[in-house]
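ok so i was messing around last nite and threw this chain in just to see what happens. nothing serious, just curious
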Amino acid sequence: MSHPHIQGYRPDIDGLRAFAVLAVVTFHAFPATVRGGFLGVDVFFAISGYLICGILLRELEAGSFSFLQFYSRRVRRIFPALLLVLAALLPLGWHMLLPDEYAALGKHILGGATFSSNLLLWSEAGYFDAAAKAKPLLHLWSLGIEEQFYIFFPLLLWACAKRHFRLITIILFLTLLSFLDNIYLHTIDRTADFYSPLARVWELLAGAGLCAALRQESTQRVLLRADKLCASLLYSPARPNDGRSLSLALAVTGFCLLGVGLLLARQTTPWPGYEAVLPILGALCLMAAGPHNAVSATVLCNRVSVFVGRISYPLYLWHWPLLSLAFIQRGGLTADTRLLRVGLVLLSFALAVATYLLVEKPIRFGQSARRAKVWGPVAGMALMAGAGGTIYGLAGLPERAKFREIAAALQQLERPPRQDAAGLAYTGIRTEQLLYCRYTDARARETVAIVGDSHASSAYVGVARLGTRESFNSVLLGWWIPGGAIWRPDDFRKYSGVIFNILQRKKEIRKVFLVTRGMLYITSVHNTGDRAGIPCQEPPVGEDNYKKSLQEFIDMLRAVGKEVFVVAENPELLADPRDYINRNTTVAQLKNNFLHVPKSDVLSRQQAYLDILANIKDATVIPTIDAFCPTEQCTVFSADGLPLYYDDDHLSVAGSIFQAEQILRPYLLRPRQP
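result:
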């Protein structure tokens, strides 16, 4: 069987690149059509490992390897197109993004320019993280992992060559370690599993391992025997033992594995885990097959596939920022934006072709001024990193003329802090013991406790302000309770115990207000906003378990002498208020309040939850819907144009103050009931 790694240019690998990028682009533009298209990134990883290993091994064997030359080639290959995309986003973000969004873009430009996007996104990910679609540079996480691989892998191969280590053994060992790390993190921290270079490097090492294995004479002997077997099974009489029968079998197997992977992979299924083995094996089979079989020659080596493969890198860079900015500007990409998405994909192709022909190709392959083609992009990337860091440091330049008039409205979109030093000191706990812990000292004898999840954190702001005026202290204590088993049952028991011990110990806490997002726990499905219909990672608690856990927690509090109030869930919006503000730039337009939320829809969504509250014993249930929805349309903006929410379900400062003054005030100030 011929050696694929010494065949020179491989048109089939460009065709495989085309498959990978088209899968990703289609998934991003039409996620309901190709639900597993994100596995194209895994295919890219395998291709990168295979190609880079082949280049390095050839140079090491020829005695021509140079770290300087290697990284110079990487600069000419990666920097120009990336620099162009990052530079284009600066003015686009200036005109289109709110200050906090522009600040986030600046931070991500810094991450992209330093190839640390995966680490940056890893640190950001969490419950309060912005929607992925609202991050125009989200896709650079994969580039970060690749470039981090390119830092250590040449050193590894060079060291193995110097010390005469058996390379394939080292690669297989590291691949196994990384895969085991992937499986381990998959069970305990799926965000880390997705972004960690240590948990994803096995995908690149798999490609490198294939390349190293194909260079072994022992491997070639095994492949020739396998080819003979394939020839006897496929043909009658058997064809010559020239490797083509095995090549065809590998190509068919590779496409089948990729097809099954596309069918099985889902956005709602944590990735990578074991499932990522399918696209990796599929890519390895196709690369091992080579171009000399009917399937690869027809599907991968045709002119269209090869050309798309050649522009795959700039196409990957351009498509997501365009889709993301459109999502931000329009407040979502729904069915009525299908034509827009088609247009954006076509525009991405046009920009990719122009970038490849006018920027990438001349710098990468041109022979003139080679030193300038390295140091110029390096200097440009340093400037881009500085620009991104400056934008982030200046909080997204809120003094831009477009946003001055609605500055007060924009401030409402800021999320409240989860903890403060006063809360930790008052409760005597450590930072990691609770997610939410704040305290406001009004120098009063009585303290009111706001207990629950992120909705409690939102409600606390208004309660604390009311307490400073009406002379009662307030404390926020929170995790995913009650019903917290939707996240992790062990966490529910652990953190509800921490909260209960604090409440039991603090005798001055006489009133406890429970504030949670009940329907999310019951159904495990987001009801509204851009996440509507998307399930959480864990099974739902269900109505019976939610009612039981809520009642048990109330009974525990009553047993230690607390008066308990359950604040019913506030209405949820059909869209994020920032989407509306993005499209309107005057206070007058905000006051028109075009973001309608029908009261009947809110009641319908919350019916199961409200039925549970109606049967709760030994606690005062405080309704909220009538106050937020005085007519058939719920209130979203205040009379002076301030949004009452900072996203589709959490109250802003203005909304929290409204809730405290208009709904909770009588219960907070009334004398304690026996």
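not much to say yet. The domain at 410-669 is CATH 3.40.50.1110 (Rossmann fold).
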